[in-house]
User: Which sequence fits this backbone?
C-alpha cells in the first residue's frame, strides 16, 4: 500500500479533527451526504463515498482537493454494496474508523406516492424501510466488527425530527426514522465502551429530497420553524464530523435535534 493511499490528506480551511481517520458516508452523491463527505475530508479524513449514483463524482472532487477517497455506486439495501465499501477501505487505507448513515428516502404525494397509513402502497412501505432502516443496519453490521477489532470507532445515523412528532402523510417515513433512532440507542448500549453510536434528528433541509416540495410549501415549513427557514446541508455536516471525532468521546446513545427549534415547540 503506497504512502498516498495510506495517509488521508488534510485539506485546507478547517482544523483536522479527523486527521488519519477513515469513514464511510452513505448518500454521498448529493445533498446532506455529499456535504458530509466534503466536511469529513476537510477535517482530514479519508472518505469512502457510497450512493446509488454520484458517489464517484464526489470522490473525484475530494481527491482533486487532496483527500483520500473512492466511490461505491450501490444500494445501501444490498449487503454486497457494504462489502465492497468495507473491502475498499481496508485495501486503500488499511482501516475504518467511522460510519455516517446519511442516505434516506421520503415518499411524496406530489409524485403520486402517498404516505398515509391507509393510502401508502405496501411496496412503497417496504422500500422506505429497506433504505431507512435495513440499510443503516447492514452498514453497522458490516463496519462494527472492524471497529470492535481495533477497539475504537464511531457511528452516526441520520434520523429525523419526524421520528419524534406526528406529521400528516409521513407514516412510512416517520416510523422508519423512529425505528432507526431506537436501533441507534440499542447499538450504543450493545457496543459500548469501544464503539460509540449517536444519531441526529434534522428538521427540513433544503436538499434534492425536497424537489417535489413547492415554494409555497417551503414557505409554510419555514413559517412553522422558530428560526423561520429550512436548514442547509452545510449546517448539519459539522455536527456529524463532531460526533465522529474524539471531541465527542463521552457521548453515545444520544439523539441531537438540529431542526431550527421545530421539535421544541
Assistant:
Amino acid at each position: 500500500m503506497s504512502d498516498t493511499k495510506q495517509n488521508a490528506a488534510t485539506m485546507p480551511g478547517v482544523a483536522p479533527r479527523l486527521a488519519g481517520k477513515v469513514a464511510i458516508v452513505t448518500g454521498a452523491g448529493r445533498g446532506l451526504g455529499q456535504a458530509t463527505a466534503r466536511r469529513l475530508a476537510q477535517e482530514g479524513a479519508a472518505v469512502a463515498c457510497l450512493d446509488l449514483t454520484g458517489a464517484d463524482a464526489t470522490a473525484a472532487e475530494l481527491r482533486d482537493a487532496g483527500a483520500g477517497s473512492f466511490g461505491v455506486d450501490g444500494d445501501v439495501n444490498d449487503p454486497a454494496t457494504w462489502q465492497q465499501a468495507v473491502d475498499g477501505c481496508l485495501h486503500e487505507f488499511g482501516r475504518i474508523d467511522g460510519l455516517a448513515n446519511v442516505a434516506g428516502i421520503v415518499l411524496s404525494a406530489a409524485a403520486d406516492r402517498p404516505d398515509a397509513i391507509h393510502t401508502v402502497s405496501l411496496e412503497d412501505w417496504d422500500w422506505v424501510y429497506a433504505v431507512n432502516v435495513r440499510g443503516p443496519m447492514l452498514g453497522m453490521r458490516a463496519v462494527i466488527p472492524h471497529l470492535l477489532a481495533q477497539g475504537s470507532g464511531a457511528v452516526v445515523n441520520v434520523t429525523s425530527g419526524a421520528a419524534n412528532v406526528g406529521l400528516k402523510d409521513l407514516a412510512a417515513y416517520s416510523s422508519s426514522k423512529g425505528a432507526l433512532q431506537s436501533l441507534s440507542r440499542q447499538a450504543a448500549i450493545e457496543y459500548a465502551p469501544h464503539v460509540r453510536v449517536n444519531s441526529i434528528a434534522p428538521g427540513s433541509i433544503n436538499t434534492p429530497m425536497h424537489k417535489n416540495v413547492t415554494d409555497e410549501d417551503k414557505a409554510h415549513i419555514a413559517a412553522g420553524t422558530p428560526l423561520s427557514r429550512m436548514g442547509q446541508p452545510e449546517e448539519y455536516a459539522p455536527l456529524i464530523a463532531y460526533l465522529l471525532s474524539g471531541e465527542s468521546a463521552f457521548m453515545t446513545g444520544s439523539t441531537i435535534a438540529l431542526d431550527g427549534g421545530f421539535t421544541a415547540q
Notes: The helical segments are 3-6, 31-42, 55-64, 79-92, 122-150, 171-191, 215-223, 233-244. The mean pLDDT is 91. Strands lie at 22-26, 46-51, 69-73, 98-101, 154-158, 196-202, 255-258.
